[in-house]
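Now for our target.
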Amino acid sequence: MFDISFTEILVIAVVALVVLGPERLPQVARTLGHLFGRAQRYVNNVKNDIQQEMELEELKKFKTSVQEAARSIENTVRTEINQFQDIAAGTKSVTATDPVLPAENMEKTASSFDPPGAPGNSIQQPGGSKLDSNDTTGIETHR
């Protein structure tokens, strides 16, 4: 902070010894030490207060940004939930107006998904005739 060399401090000490005398110099040095310590503590306290205020401002900014992000996420989730509920409500209304398929129609629908050769289905042969998978005529069994 101050550019004071050792020789300058030595000159100040000699002048203080001559001016104040040997009886009062220790008491004055002690008082100056206490005042210097108080000044340092005051400066450090001011620095700490400024640092805390800066950190507090940063935390407030961070808090607001986190709150904004939370609101944004909450709004997005609510929008998605509302869309899902609208779709679910639309699906419920469609299924409520459609008649239930009779059991025989369901069997026909299910059998249309069976692979060729499954029981009850026929296979188209290259000659144009159909081979029923339940038909066992013409198949020889060896025992």
